[in-house]
């Protein structure tokens, strides 16, 4: 089991690294030419400005560095609302505990930075707990709705009576007990819900913030997924039409969006885990498995305690494939208990004990009238222990 977990971990690490390398190559090919063009335009404007106003490049660069420091502190050329009034601070702590972290507002004092460390430690942990509890209740609601739809389909087919009672034991009705929705259906539902919330939020941001609809969708994904680049940030202007209503709607959309995207990420991680398990099975040596099965079938007296499980149900509550670690076989170096040994080889031991006893006492063996052990008596050492155990489990004839 440990080797399988290590293999799954290593495969996931390799896939993530490859995924990052591919993403870096794509973004570099798309964004690098635009960055170079913007830099060339800026250098040209900087040169024209210094020539027109008879300034040195060093003095101008020093001035621009001072403006960058002021910008970090919250100073902007355009009029925007104060960053650290109560509403601005509340918006900031919302981005902290939700792990969004837009970056447009950051503490500048030492006391604020120290307080942020302890405040974020507790706030992020509590918010993650809230998201997990939200996911549990969301899955419960989805499972209830899907199970109700499944029962309605069975009633339409005539398998399930309309009064809700179970019928004459059909397989469809029996399968309804303990029924759980598929993880793929849950993922689809969460995808649709996240898309609907993003589209509705984008319809609100586009006219109020003055963004394009595509930029609004981009902001929704960056904010809801808690990536939080900070290039686009909502509710930053000093005045809005219906300002209170807009800020309330902004808070609700971000809260709902983060909850749905967080739940979607958890469900997608289950699908990724199933895909990794499938890849590992495909990479395993099929020849070795065939050889092990042949060796297993050739050993008729092998000890097999327990039942071999072969379920392959993948549901939202069973995020892994249920399978036996050894497929019903014990490893050659694994110890077994006396209880498992007796339970698996009772008949063979009984025949062997009877043959040994008859051979030692002479055939046919004389039975004691007071003995009620059904032929299982005597024995030396380990055989005597087996004899007593078999005598306890034997049935009088």
Task: Provide a descriptive summary of the structure in words.
With 397 residues, the chain is mainly alpha-helical. The protein has a domain at 1-77. The protein is 66% helix and 0% strand. The protein has helices spanning 2-53, 57-72, 86-97, 110-157, 171-176, 183-209, 213-224, 243-283, 286-298, 338-344, 346-361, 382-393. Helix 4 crosses helix 8, helix 6 (183-209) crosses helix 7 (213-224) and helix 6 (183-209) packs antiparallel against helix 8 (243-283). The two termini are 47 Å apart. Residues 300-313, 320-334, 365-377 and 379-383 have low confidence and may be disordered. It catalyses: K(+)(in) = K(+)(out). It is found in: Cell membrane. One of its GO terms (biological process) is stabilization of membrane potential. InterPro entries: 2pore_dom_K_chnl, 2pore_dom_K_chnl_THIK, K_chnl_dom. Residues 76-138, 188-273 form the Potassium channel domain.
